[in-house]
Design goal:
Elements lengths: L2 E4 L12 H6 L3 E4 L3 H7 L10 E6 L5 E6 L22 E6 L2 E6 L6 E4 L33 E2 L9 E4 L3 H5 L7
Antiparallel strand pairs: 1-2, 3-4, 5-6, 7-9, 8-9
């Protein structure tokens, strides 16, 4: 969604249907153009997962917002949307790089992902730098970030425990035909 939270208390202008309503409005949903103001002003950020909480946001859609525990709930200046399921169902609040984020609940959102393998699959090559996988499976929950095992895959991929798919950010090398 394009809308993000900006707190009126941070000094940004609130919608002014009338001055009294604007003064009492509190936090207001704003669009992406205002996010730089919110980030620059900051609300303290987080250091550990316990500093964060989740908020079911029905203003801009069925969104799950991660907030610092001391931050007030955003106020929607219009009628909220109706959602079949609470947006934060199955999610947990976590602190990543000083910012509160929503992650998949259970194992703080960590899952087993395949790493990049050989550009051309040629069969499994024995490895001595990592132990063989036993019960680990792609997509299953895991707890130790960065743990790896060898599933003896025909493309020499490893399984690694991570909060997001490591092959997406940089992509994997591909064979040139």
């Amino acid at each position: 969604m394009l809308a993000l939270v900006l707190l009126c208390a941070l000094g940004a202008a609130c919608p002014k249907d009338d001055d009294a309503a604007a003064a009492d409005a509190g936090p207001v949903m704003r669009d992406d153009a205002d996010i730089a103001v919110a980030d620059a002003a900051g609300t303290g950020g987080c250091r550990v997962d316990g500093d964060c909480r989740l908020f079911d946001d029905y203003c801009t859609g069925c969104d799950c917002r991660a907030l610092v525990k001391g931050d007030p709930d955003p106020v929607c200046p219009r009628s909220p949307m109706a959602c079949l399921v609470a947006p934060c169902t199955g999610k947990a609040a976590a602190c990543r790089a000083g910012k509160c984020v929503a992650v998949v609940a259970g194992g703080a959102g960590k899952r087993w992902y395949f790493t990049c393998g050989d550009p051309v699959c040629r069969g499994s090559t024995p490895r001595t730098d990592v132990s063989a996988c036993t019960t680990e499976q792609e997509g299953a929950a895991c707890t130790t970030d960065g743990a790896s095992c060898d599933p003896h895959d025909s493309c020499n991929r490893l399984l690694t425990c991570a909060a997001s798919d490591p092959t997406i950010s940089g992509g994997c090398p591909r064979a040139r035909l």
